[in-house]
């Protein structure tokens, strides 16, 4: 992006192409350039540290500019920290939970938005309310329930609780969307003899793709980034997703900052990719439920 | 039965390019209502299944456990021997527990600090970056990049920043504020504030996104008219724009408080409530009591306190959503 090279000096000159109502003052850039740099500095620093060698950090301090370039940090994090397995766990849980959440919540949203279900508004708001509860009120019983079902310490339990907790919000959002689909399409499909299931599959799902994409982007980052549910239902390190594994790694390599920085970057990269690929969907996903 | 069956439904998925209904075609009516036809169909069996499966999943994993927490909060239980009912003793103990009181105070400070800093920051940035222009897209992306990083990873990032020889101290020395350098996360006086900075760093982008959307919905002609009448930029913002952002403000307020009461990951990643419990929040203390100390009944009592504190804001948020439902 060319904007990255923008400096306060060049900022005052352009702008004719857009015909602004008022001339834009250069102060915006005078303030925003340093602020943006400051904002990105933690990420930049961690990235620099991740590529430095342990000796370089030990000799010259964490804050010094790099005098070495090595992938040792990443190598150690991947070999000793079990990062590959943790990343695999995270991806498996996220994929399963996002798919299951969207499937189930699109069913509920379809039923609630298109059929005369008694008390449907109450059901909808109650489902949303479930998602707003503080997770702390669920932790102890969820741990106990997953134990009594014999699924404690399995990735399945983590998927199940993620789906259960998220479903209310996704249903609420999809309901708002599906309600807006044009009735004519449904009418036409019914005249052609399509039943409720066929209409869901052939009309509702394809037309809801934008809303589903927004929710998928959002849910992916939420579930991938989760820590508290993982700590609640999982016990053995081999099952930990990346967030929980990172905190463990922190204990094992407490002074090897290059390893910790490298592992943190690895944990941040997948959601960053989702964000940059689906920035528009992601932002619109954040906005749902905040309708003005 | 609900009364929100208007045909001109507006999709909630903002900016997702939803198809809109052209009008009231298709013959619409609410059941029992005056208009003709039936937009809402009689419910086939399959649709009951569609509804009941997700509802059952949520009942089982959310509402049933939540109800359990309430009854557990009235017991003393270590998770192994049977729970022993103790009435309200857990709550009486909480009132006497200095760590709980620290956590409660910290949580109050957290709500205030987290709310004020992220709202002021997010709103200021939204106003500054509202109009398109050179670099604006890049600035926006930079501000909301931290949002995609998990709370746990944010915590680790900032642990690196706060290390004794780390960038924060080095930066302070570079600008001549060397006297301020300290062991940020080990100093009981500043540890909570240090974590707060990290949390705000991540939250500002989210608040900015909400306000940017709110500003887009504001009527620009009002502001122009005020400008013609000689209102200063500040007057225009405070008297013209702010009142139009009332809806966003409610959502931001509720979301911030609900998020503050949930905050766990970042504290757990940075200090685990230490040093000497000075950064303990209700959520971290609850977690520690439950899963480190094994006091499941006592932990449930803390959870109930969190719930009671949150419920007012949850209802505020729900009421707003319900009203938005009706309007659309």
CATH class of the largest domain in chain A: Mainly Alpha
What does the overall shape of chain B look like?
globular
Quick check: average pLDDT of chain B? 83
Count of DSSP strands of chain B = 2
Largest interface summary: A-B, 131 and 130 residues
Q: What's the CATH superfamily of the largest domain in chain A, by name?
A: MetI-like
Assign an overall shape of chain A: globular
- Domains of chain A (count): 2
The description of the largest β-sheet of chain B is: 2 strands, antiparallel
Descriptive report:
The complex is a heterodimer of chains A (292) and B (328). Chain A has 292 residues and is an all-alpha fold. Chain A folds into two domains: 2-76, no CATH class; 82-287, Orthogonal Bundle (MetI-like fold), CATH 1.10.3720.10. Chain A has 15 helices and no strands. In chain A, helix 11 packs across helix 15 (279-287) and helix 13 runs antiparallel to helix 14 (257-277). Chain B has helices at 45-72, 89-96, 98-128, 136-144, 151-162, 167-174, 191-216, 220-228, 233-244, 246-262, 265-270, 282-292, 296-327, and strands spanning 75-76, 84-85. In chain B, strands 1-2 form a two-stranded antiparallel sheet. In chain B, helix 3 runs antiparallel to helix 10 (246-262), helix 7 (191-216) packs antiparallel against helix 10 (246-262) and helix 8 (220-228) packs antiparallel against helix 9 (233-244). At the A-B interface, helix 2, helix 5, helix 6, helix 7 and helix 8 of A face helix 1, helix 4, helix 5, helix 6 and helix 7 of B.
